Amino acid sequence: MKSNQLLAHPEQSLVGHLSGVAQLAEILAGWFGGSSHGKLAGLLHDLGKAEDVFQGRMEAIKAGKNDPGGKEPHAHHGAALALAQDHWPVAFVVNGHHAGLHNRGDLAKRADYEQRARDCLQQLEREGFSHLRDEFGPILPKCLEALGDDPQRQIMAVELFTRFLFSALVDADRLDTERSDPESKAAG
Fold this sequence. Notes:
This protein has helices spanning 14-30, 35-44, 52-62, 76-84, 88-95, 104-108, 114-125, 151-180, 182-187, and strands spanning 7-9, 12-13.
């Protein structure tokens, strides 16, 4: 790994992590018709880790120092980008992938992270991360279009889809992180 490379974890590049999680989430979400949504959520989920505060923590840990703390949210960034495109299910799962799903009012407060997210994207693009250009497709999968005009049924279907998508993202994130952890490789 080159020095000055953005890190997701002490032994894993941020570009590699975002891409790896996107690939896994795409596969997992494919089981319920949401592969493109899983991929988008994976690409957005840790976008805020490109900020200097987080990168400083990673460099300190890599250098063998104790974690200096200063933890800043890193999921709100990707959620803000999804919100800007009205991708509510993706925004919910990205924002909550560490803390659980939030309500719509809490999520709407994350819109102020959009410029910070765009700054993070610029940093990632310098490292070859250009995956997001064509990823904002339909807000909901085609399978949910066939529900008819029953609003209660539509709401329940979107809620269920969002929870399935959340599960796919959380599992993909943990699996990809585990793959990069040298201790888990030694144990396995």
